[in-house]
Amino acid sequence: MPEHSWFEIDEPDELTETERAFVTALREQTADFASDDTGGEVAWCEDRLVAYLTVIDPEAPLSLIDFGVHFSGDRVEGDRLHNQLLTLPDQPSRWALDETGTVQELARRSRRWFHSMLRRPVVLYVWLHDGYAYAARYALADTDETISQCYNDRLAPPGQAEELIAAGHVHGKGWIQTVGLPVPDLYLHIRGDLDEAAMKNIRAATKRGPIPGLWYE
User: Fold this and answer.
1) Shared-domain flag, residues 37 and 23
2) Same domain, 92 and 172
3) 112-151, pLDDT tens digit by residue?
4) Are residues 107 and 126 in the same domain?
5) What is the superkingdom listed in this entry's lineage (predicted)?
């Protein structure tokens, strides 16, 4: 059991009776799989109650992804959330939740959704050059969705960054997208069920060295 329960309410008087009932039911129903390597919080977003989990890589240490549910009385909407604003994406992902029902029904459905999300395999892909890690990418390995990534052009093979930019594998102000790189040299299993993952014959590793660089989505 974790040191602290998920979805604790600091100021219960700020919640309506319906919101308190939902959070209480959700906290009780997730107690059997709550863990300290995942943070479970309650917050507000656009006047709606949000119950969300933050998946962490404790060895980095790094917060990887926030996902949670927006509760509005008789409806919950769940998906990956913005890591600062806690907003839902403009377009629901393939694993989004959208349910209506009573408070207890919504708590149960949210519990099942959280549990299934935590089972999804998270891996860290690493690319090496001259013995140094120059790029890395956390991904949901069942769908190959990027969670977070970094790329260090000073350690990368000469000319590679320019080739990636020319091919369009860049977002914003020069944020190189590692999906444009060749097959990773190795991967580390971070959490979840690898039976659901397609690893493309990439070498598994259990130890990691330093991965210098700034992490971004």
Assistant:
1) yes
2) no
3) 999 999 999 999 999 999 999 999 999 999 999 999 999 9
4) no
5) Bacteria
Q: Quote the pLDDT of residue 2.
A: 55
Residue with tokens 């479970």: 40
Of the chain, the end-to-end C-alpha distance in Å amounts to 31
Which residue stretches of the chain have pLDDT < 50? Answer: none
In this structure, the dihedral spanned by the alpha carbons of residues 81, 189, 197 and 180, taken in order and rounded to 10 degrees, is 70
The rounded distance, in Å, linking the Cα atoms of 4 and 41 is 11
Quickly tell me which residue has 């991967």 as its tokens.
187
Contact partners, residue 194, CB within 8 Å, separation at least 6: 121, 123, 141
Residues 143 and 158 in one domain: yes
Strand partners, 122: 140, 191
On whether both 111 and 131 belong to a single domain, the answer is no
- Same-domain check for residues 109 and 96: yes
Q: Characterise 212 by phi-psi region: left (phi > 0), alpha (psi -120 to 50), beta (else).
A: beta
Are 115 and 178 members of one domain? no
Give the C-alpha separation, 22 to 156, whole Å.
49
Q: Measured at the alpha carbon of residue 150, what is the angle toward residues 123 and 122, in degrees to the nearest 5?
A: 15
Number of domains in the chain: 2
